[in-house]
């Protein structure tokens, strides 16, 4: 293992919530030991608010690689601007975005999962990705986690939308979400790009995620050949990170 890559929601933090301090401290320590990537279905703003804004002063941001919207965008730290700088983006066409938004609403209504009450927009156009959030982007974590614990509702919606847009990639995302992006631009694409940029093999990247099931959006990273590590939540991830930090500390003396 020469690189560690992490999913965000359900792995480093609960849905749309900032990392807790112990997780932020552990991730900060990891950045001083090896390159660290965040590969999330969320936007760069969410990656900032949930992850990078929470890092301690110990963090080495130059060792971090931010790949939001499932790798459709990529950001590196620019010390001159003291900010994250976009290196590439793969946006959906206007026509594809229109088709996806119409399909999501139509099928969600047909399947009975177009909720009357939501916390914020159900459908978000992220440019490089369209995301459907059944309860709205700002729904309470508890409500999200209770809505579809078996992922059956999301998977049915993803299957229905995929038939309308076969040229795009439709994936079951976080606890209440379905993500749509250009085909071939997913977490498998992200880890391959990351390997090329860092001069390592995909098999030298450890990818940590909570949705490694075949319908989950972390599954492509596992299929790509990473060292796939499935976790059950942020507490599990924290234990993993602490074990890795302890190993480095013992073996670097």
UniProtKB/TrEMBL annotation:
Q: What is its EC number?
A: 5.4.2.8
Where in or outside the cell it occurs: the entry states:
Cytoplasm
User: Which InterPro entries does this one have?
Assistant: HAD-like_sf, HAD-SF_hydro_IIB, HAD_sf, PMM, PMM_cap
Cofactor(s), names only, from the UniProt record: Mg(2+)
Provide the binding site for Mg(2+): 7, 9, 210, 226
A Pfam family name for this chain?
Answer: PMM
Q: Which keywords does UniProt give here?
A: Cytoplasm, Hydrolase, Isomerase, Magnesium, Metal-binding
Quick one: a GO biological-process term for this protein?
Answer: GDP-mannose biosynthetic process
Is this entry keyworded Glycosyltransferase?
Answer: no
Q: Which GO terms describe its cellular component?
A: cytosol
Enzyme class, spelled out: isomerase
Q: What protein family is recorded?
A: Belongs to the eukaryotic PMM family.
Q: How does it assemble?
A: Homodimer.
Protein name (Swiss-Prot/TrEMBL): phosphomannomutase
Originating organism:
Bifidobacterium animalis subsp. lactis (strain AD011)
Lineage runs: Bacteria, Bacillati, Actinomycetota, Actinomycetes, Bifidobacteriales
């Amino acid at each position: 293992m020469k690189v560690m890559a992490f999913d965000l929601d359900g792995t480093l933090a609960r849905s749309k919530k900032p990392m807790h301090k112990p997780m932020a401290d552990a991730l900060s320590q990891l950045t001083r030991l090896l390159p660290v990537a965040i590969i999330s279905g969320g936007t760069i703003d969410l990656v900032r608010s949930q992850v990078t804004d929470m890092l301690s002063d110990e963090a080495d941001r130059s060792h971090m690689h931010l790949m939001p919207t499932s790798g459709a965008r990529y950001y590196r730290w620019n010390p001159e601007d003291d900010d994250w700088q976009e290196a590439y983006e793969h946006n959906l066409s206007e026509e594809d975005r229109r088709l996806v938004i119409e399909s999501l609403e139509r099928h969600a209504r047909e399947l009975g999962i177009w909720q009357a009450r939501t916390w914020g927009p159900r459908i978000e156009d992220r440019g490089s990705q369209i995301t459907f959030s059944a309860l709205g982007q700002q729904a309470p974590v508890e409500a999200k986690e209770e809505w579809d614990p078996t992922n059956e509702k999301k998977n049915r919606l993803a299957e229905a939308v995929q038939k309308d847009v076969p040229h795009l990639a439709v994936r079951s995302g976080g606890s209440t979400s379905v993500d749509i992006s250009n085909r071939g631009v997913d977490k498998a694409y992200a880890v391959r790009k990351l390997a090329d940029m860092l001069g390592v093999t995909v098999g030298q990247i450890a990818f940590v995620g909570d949705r490694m099931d075949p319908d989950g959006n972390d599954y492509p990273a596992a299929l790509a050949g990473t060292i796939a590590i499935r976790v059950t939540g942020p507490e599990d991830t924290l234990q993993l990170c602490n074990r890795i930090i302890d190993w480095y500390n013992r073996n670097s003396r």
